[in-house]
Amino acid sequence: MAGAPPPWNGEKAVLATMHGKERAIAPLAARFLGLEVGVAEGLDTDRFGTFSREIERAGTPREAARAKIAAAFRLAPEARVGIASEGSFGPHPQLPFAALNRELVLLRDRKTGLELVGHHATIATNFAHALVTDAAAGLAFAAKAGFPAHGVIVMGVLDGQPAPQLALFKSIGTEAELVAVLGRAIAMTGAAHIETDMRAHRNPRRMRAIRRAMLDLVRRSRSRCPQCARPGFAMTGRVQGLPCAWCASPTHLTRAEVWACEGCAHSEERPVQATSADPVHCEECNP
To answer: What are the residue ranges spanned by the domains of the chain?
Structure first.
């Protein structure tokens, strides 16, 4: 409703991060949700999983974010709301040779149990890695990744695979430091594995993706279920079958979006704006 106060006007929130994510999340939470966000001081979020492989993430990204929020709540008993984010990186499922960054931001209201989640997926990531046997190759990789503005991580190698248990260097700030740690890893294991540092405070592209996920959470907070009025009514899937404009056969294009509520399980299909598909997408007209 226009003119209504933010949903948590003046309430305190605790953000589970040790990697500077407050820069992406706190201003939006304050402006659009009315939250006064503080960081969970002393919380080691690395124990829930690291990109550099020392600790595997347990469960799904949402489960990991829930665990972070639970830990943050224990450190901030005065906070009504907890916020955490979780990122995932890997090959794009449809685009060969492209990497995909998926970001999730989770908000939990301790008083009501309400959970809101925001998502963002993007190929605008520098996620990459390489196996190198000399410092020059490592420097070339780092330059392509945007170092030093974008961080890199160096680790040892065992049987051609990254081996952080043998050597692991994260806090690399200068080219001279990079040359030094590459030399140490190569001397120890015969090669070095170098990869982009995907921690938010060392990766500006990821920080932008987290901000986009937070904006999605804000949008969802303003979308209420038509059945129970719970915030967070959002699109959860798509239904294929948009009919061909020539023969009316179903195509692989989307004919409707599925919107659902996590609270009462109400769902509905919302037709897309297009009423028919170009015959180029029809297997009957364009086999």
So the answer is: 12-124, 129-197, 235-281
Q: Give the integer Cα–Cα distance in Å for 225 and 140.
A: 51
Per-residue pLDDT of the chain (287 residues; tens, 9 = 90+): 344 567 899 999 999 999 999 999 999 999 999 999 999 999 999 999 999 999 999 899 999 999 999 999 999 999 999 999 999 999 998 888 899 999 999 999 999 999 999 999 999 999 999 999 999 999 999 999 999 999 999 999 999 999 999 999 998 999 999 999 999 999 999 999 999 999 999 999 999 999 999 999 999 999 999 999 999 999 999 999 999 999 999 999 999 999 999 999 999 999 999 999 999 999 999 87
CB 16 within 8 A of CB 71: yes
Q: Closest by alpha carbon to 70, among 95, 43, 46?
A: 43
User: For the whole model, what pTM was predicted?
Assistant: 0.92
Q: Name the residue with tokens 């990991």.
A: 64
109 DSSP β-pair partners:
81
Is 3.90.950.10 the CATH number for 12-124? yes
Q: Which CATH architecture has domain 129-197?
A: 2-Layer Sandwich (3.30)
